[in-house]
Amino acid sequence: MDILFNPVIVSVVVLCALSLLKLNVLLSMIAATIVAGVAGGISLYGDGTSVMSLLCDGFSVNAQTALAYILLGTFAEAICTTGLAEIITAKLARVIGTKKYVLLAMLTFIAVLSQNLVPVHIAYIPILIPPILALMNKLKIDRRAVACATAFGLEAPYIAIPFGFGLIFQTVIATNLSENGMSVTVMDVTRVNWYLGCAMFIGLLIAVLIVYRKPRVYQTTSIDTQAAMAQVSNLTYKHYVTLAAIVVVMIVQLISHDLSLSSLAGLAVMIAFKAIAWNSIDEQLAGGVKLMGLIAFIMLVAGGYANVIKATGGIDALVYFGTSFMHGSKIIAALVITIIGLLVTMGIGTSFGTVPVLAVLFVPLCQSMGFSVPATIVLISAAAALGDAGSPASDTTLGPTSGLNADGQHSHIWDTCVPTFIVFNSALMIAAVIAAQFI
Which InterPro entries does the record match to this protein (predicted)? Predict the structure, then answer.
C-alpha cells in the first residue's frame, strides 16, 4: 500500500484540513471516516462490512462516555439553575481581583481536581468558565492561555497520577501491555509516567508565561456578564443541597468509576430534596443536551472512526512502513512510535481508546528493539496521549472550547486545538524520546 494513500494518514489530513477550514467538527469527522474507508477499499454502503455499517457499529465503543457527558451536562445545568455557580464565581472574582496569574493557576488547579480528586471531567467547565469571561476580559487574558491551562489539567493528571481518571488510564496501560506479553503493574506505570507529566508542566509554563503572555482584547457581551453583575449573597437551602449533591457525585464516582451513575446520583439528590423542581426536569435535560450533546455525538463518531480505520488495515501498514526506517536505532524507533500514536489519536480523539490499538503493535516491536519495560511504558503512554491535546475530536479540547466560546469569541480550532497541539504534543514527544533512551 502506497504510504501516501494510507487510510490513517489520508483521513487525518482530511480531518485536520476541514477543521482548520472551520467546518463543524462532527461533519469533519464523518467526512474523514468516509475517506478512510474508501481509501482502505471498503464499500461505502451495503452489508455489515460497509463504511456506514462499521461507523455505526463503532458507536458502542464510546456509548457509555457519550451517555455520561449528557448526564453530566444535565447535572451542570441543574447546578446553574440553583445559582450556586454564580455565587461562587462572584466570590472568586472578588478574591482574585486583578491577579491574572492567580486566576490561571486557579483554573489549572480546578482542572487537575476534575480528573483526580473530584472526577467530574469536563462537566465543570460550562458551569465555571462562562460566568468569569467578563473578569478575563477585564484582565485582558489571552484565552489561548486559559485553553492551555485547562487542557493541561485535563490531560497531565491522568497520565501521571494514579487516582480517579489517572487510575483508569494507568490500569488500561498496564493491562494491555501485560496482555501483549510484557508483565506490567499500575505502580510500574506510575513510576515512569511522571516524566511526561513534568514535560507537560514545562510546556504549560512556556505557554502561559511566554507564548500567550501578552494582553488580548475581547468584547464583553450580555452573555458573559452574569458573574460580574451577580451580588455575593448567602447560601440558601438549595445551595446546600447542591453542595451535598456534588459530594455524592464524588463519592459514587470514587466507588463505581462510572460517570453516568455518579451524575445520576447527584441529580437524584437534587430532585429528591427539591433543589430543582420536578416539573423543570425536562428543562434541565434539554439544557444538558445543549451543553454537552455535540461533544457526546462527536465521541460516538470517534468510536466509529476508530472502527473503520482498524478495518482498513491502515494502522498495521503504517507501523510496517515506519519499522523499515528504524535500522536498529532506538531514537528513530521512539520517534516512529510516537508519530504513529499522534496520527492515530488525532483521528480517534481519545488516548484511552488508542492504548489497545497501539499495545498490540508496539509491545513486540519495543521488545525486539531492546527497549526496557519502563521505556516501553513511557513510549506507549506518550503515543496514546499525543494528539489528545490538539485533536478536534478530543474532550481535552472540546471541553475548554465549550466554556471559552460561550460568547462566540473563541475558535475551537485556532484558539484551542492549535495552541494545545503545539505546546503539549511537542513536550510529550521530546520527553518520551529522550526518556526511552535512558530508563
Answer: AA_Transporter-Related, Na/H_Antiport_NhaC-like_C, Na_H_antiport_N
